[in-house]
Structure to design on (722 residues):
């Protein structure tokens, strides 16, 4: 993972001036004046930015309308003195996670985590051997599991996501990302991230954007690994959450206890609400992949000034998955229509992405 | 305000090398090698950091235990290779707002805002002329207002903080900060910010800290002006909030409607909960001034590694206000005892601050 992120970062940050045949600078250090040094530093920074604009920061994207719409937008909002220039502090970019930054098939990865947690926690819960829906997971009885429906799923999430401290939960998540494997690709789940989107995150940051995740996933499930995998720190991850209680133990140590009560669902109309609550500014750039992202895209689009709205369309059953209007997971129907009507960018995974996952041969 | 912030920023960022008699560097720019330039840049950055460490970044603080505890802590956690070194991404600093960054007397400024809003909104609410608690405000009848108690206050807050879009509310806040004056100091409320704390915020940021506000105040009341006044962007402001609803108007434009339902109270045990929810990392540096900040300080203190916990003690009736254990606003009692027991820093405003407000003669 770091290697992949590093690669995207290197592309964006080091300004390979030689390859671009641009001027290469050096500075010799004397005692004279700080001002001259700072001017020189600015000069180098400007040279880097200019090199960046010309080098390919999105090497895993095929040339085409989707890629061009991104680079054109970034050029417009970063051009000092241009009509569409946006100050750095307003360059807020929000990304859905499941199906936008990482894969969401055959089930949301957080559901896979919950199932694996049931198995891991089973020794402490002998009653699960005879109680549904836990018994179904332990017996790998998919029919009984399906029969337990949404109620069963909520029971599983409650049992595996509450009754422990935030620190203990964070550790459980990291243990899982380090050990669990995706059933089809047989790789750690955190390798099932889209290489083109990693490049896009790094490219936006190199152009002064602050990148946020705005996901229906649990915020405590996402934060432990996203900084390493996406370069997005915990304070820039917005997600669904349960009520958490502050307590001081008998040892005098404070902790935060995760309860089973749902507090906030960061999905659909909850996304602009979550953006308002956590970020407090409207994004100028937003990417999603499903109808759960529609309101985030509408909210992003619904103000003056330059705006970018994008959707990842899963069209590649060979390298990843192909699904949209009929899918139970990541259903893309209304948002696809609205994208067509409003001219939002739609990324056709098969056509627009040279690489999907970094581990591809 | 910008002048004040600028001053604090300049102190922290420009590395007044001449005054410190340190080496001053210059760089001449040649075509040679980017690597040399980057090394030179690093060299300048290191020189700046080292100058920073020695120059006085906190000129409005008198020399003494409080100031020393701050600079000692920052030196320890920023010393590369030192036992207490903390990586930049973990340098999270949280500040209460009312009574910590700005004044909170004779009433919380958000309450003053709510009262002023009642007057401003009265023409659209003729019924308020005869309905308490609104009548009391319009008649300046402090006795009747007091008699309406907490219930009355909640009614006033609900009437002035909901039933409008987040954009309209933000505008109302900015109009108020531009026009309303503090009853004693006859200055805009946003000038009632503590100069030593502005310097502290800038000093921490210059040392790689990310600074956050974690306040019982309403998040929508704070965000519109804090970036300009404190240099803290909206996404780093944590506060209390009401439920907000996403809606699409008949014109097809999306908006967020503020409702009267309270969603989250970021005070007392709510502060560590808010920190967990919004920041997702434990601070290593926290400052408050009242019992409402106790749990934030306990949470900050309650983990391994170097930690700084500080309280502003209001001891200066002449330049500001003097209050603690008996005060209805900003009561400081249990937290003062715990600070003494645990050796947390207590800033004695009268003794430790050379300047309280930038506008002082």
């Amino acid at each position: 993972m770091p290697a992949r992120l590093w690669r995207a970062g290197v592309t964006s940050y080091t300004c390979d001036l030689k390859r671009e045949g641009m001027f290469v600078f050096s500075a010799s250090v004397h005692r004279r004046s700080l001002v001259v040094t700072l001017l020189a530093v600015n000069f180098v920074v400007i040279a880097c930015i200019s090199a960046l604009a010309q080098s390919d920061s999105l090497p895993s994207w095929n040339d085409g309308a989707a890629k061009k719409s991104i680079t054109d937008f970034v050029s417009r909002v970063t051009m000092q003195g241009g009509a569409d220039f946006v100050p750095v502090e307003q360059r807020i970019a929000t990304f859905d996670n499941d199906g936008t930054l990482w894969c969401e098939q055959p089930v949301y990865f957080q559901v896979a985590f919950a199932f694996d947690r049931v198995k891991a926690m089973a020794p402490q819960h002998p009653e699960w051997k005879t109680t549904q829906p836990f018994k179904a997971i332990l017996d790998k009885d998919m029919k009984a599991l399906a029969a337990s429906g949404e109620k069963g799923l909520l029971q599983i999430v409650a049992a595996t996501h509450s009754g422990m401290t935030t620190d203990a939960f964070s550790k459980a998540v990291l243990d899982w990302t380090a050990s669990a494997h995706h059933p089809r690709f047989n790789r750690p789940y955190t390798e099932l991230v889209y290489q083109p989107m990693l490049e896009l995150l790094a490219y936006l940051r190199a152009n002064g954007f602050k990148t946020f995740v705005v996901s229906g996933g649990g915020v405590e499930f996402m934060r432990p690994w996203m900084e390493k995998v996406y370069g997005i720190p915990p304070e820039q991850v917005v997600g669904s959450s349960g009520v958490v209680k502050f307590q001081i133990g008998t040892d005098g140590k404070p902790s935060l206890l995760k309860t089973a009560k749902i507090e906030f669902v960061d999905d659909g109309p909850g996304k602009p609400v979550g953006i308002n609550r956590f970020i407090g500014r409207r994004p100028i750039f937003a990417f999603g992949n499903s109808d759960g992202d529609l309101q985030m895209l509408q909210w992003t689009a619904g103000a003056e000034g330059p705006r970018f709205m994008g959707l990842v369309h899963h069209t590649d059953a060979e390298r990843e998955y192909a699904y949209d209007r009929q899918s139970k997971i990541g259903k893309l129907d209304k948002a696809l229509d609205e994208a067509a009507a409003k001219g939002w960018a739609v990324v056709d995974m098969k056509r627009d992405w040279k690489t999907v996952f970094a581990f591809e041969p």
